[in-house]
Amino acid sequence: MSKRIVVRGPMLDSIEVVDEPLPSVGPDQVRIRVKAAGVAFGDVFRRKLSRRPYTPGYDVVGDVDAVGEGVEKTWIGKRVACFMPKPGYGGYAEHVVVGKEHVVAMPADLDPVRGVCLGLNYITAYQLLTRTTKPRPGQAILIHGAAGGVGTALLDLARLLEIKAYGTASAGKHELVQRYGGIPIDYRSKDFVTEMRRFEPSGVACVYDPIGGSHLARSLQCLQRGGTVVSFGASGAVDQGVAAIVKSQLRIVALKLKPDGKKVRLYGITLSRGAKPEDCRRDWVTLVHLYREGKLDPVVGAVLPLTRARDAHEMLEQRAVTGKIVLVPEA
Questions:
Q1: pTM of the predicted structure, to 2 decimals
Q2: DSSP result, 103-163
Q3: Model confidence over 316-325: pLDDT tens digits?
Q4: Domain of 41?
Q5: DSSP class of residue 247?
Q6: Are 119 and 31 contacting, i.e. CB atoms less than 8 angstroms apart?
Q7: What is the pLDDT of residue 256?
Q8: Residues 109 and 157 reside in one and the same domain
Q9: One domain, residues 150 and 247
Q10: pLDDT classification of 326: cutoffs 50, 70, 90
């Protein structure tokens, strides 16, 4: 038997654990015994908009325990990473079955928890800093939600790339931001636009904004001429429904048309140029290599049993954790 999480509606209590027979393997597929599954704010976002049952989860790390016809038996027992074929669906499970083309081999001794931390969040951060934008060493950037999963990944990579990073975070998370080389700004007690104008009168090269909506216009005020704001989420609209999310996206279009010498870009993992599934798999390998060289240090916010997926979502909704939340099977 094998457990997986099923979401049956938008509320926390709609998150259920189901126990069912092991999934079968078809031609050119592999079955992964999951050792670690990542939890992302995108999972919360999708749940709140859900209208039919599904299993959440973007990324997993585990070991291949079965292969289908057309796949070499040598894959059995290998540690692998997988970005789920339908992004955001299927990862919260003890076993997942995917086409072989969706997995990448990982070092046999890679810690699965650290490995999955280097998945969605770090891939997003890496692509934001090296493709969507390309800030140079010494330039300044602003990261919103700097103590979160993507935020800490951006700080970690910015430190490696010698980029000066400012980060908005509540006061209790400032020590973490500073530990990762960032300059914290308490968005609750201070106006971040005013603070950025004090710190960087000419503006920053880039702002990374997962909040969206009216927040984007304020982020734009922090830019230098020629700078770029990247919108990579709409967390500010998640509790307001589909209409608010659509409005947030339309605001991006409006800001793009504003002739002020500043750029606004929209990033979507697996959708944007340089962020396609094959790019994600290649970047994951690169990030694991950097981690094993001691150049990256992902923040593990919490490790919970798979059966506590509800608690993981509640922690994310309440912003009660820093870094990445990871689910692990109890076997």
A1: 0.93
A2: EEE--TT--HHHHHHTTHHHHHHHHIIIII--PPTT-EEEETTTTSHHHHHHHHHHHHTT-
A3: 999 889 999 9
A4: 2-118+299-328
A5: H
A6: no
A7: 59
A8: no
A9: yes
A10: very high
Could you tell me how many residues make up the chain?
331
Read off the CATH number of the domain in which 246 is found: 3.40.50.720
Amino acid at 139: Q
In sequence order, what DSSP letters do the residues of 283-313 get, joined into one string?
HHHHHHHHHHTT-----EEEEEEGGGHHHHH
Domain-embedded: residue 276: no
Across the chain, the runs of DSSP E, i.e. the strands, are 2-7, 15-20, 29-39, 59-67, 79-83, 95-99, 103-105, 140-143, 164-168, 183-185, 204-209, 223-231, 263-266, 300-305, 324-328
Alpha-carbon distance 178 to 188, whole Å? 17
The Cα–Cα gap between 318 and 109 comes to 34
Express each pLDDT in 217-248 by its tens digit. Answer: 899 999 999 999 999 986 655 555 555 555 55
Is the Cβ–Cβ distance between 104 and 284 less than 8 Å? yes
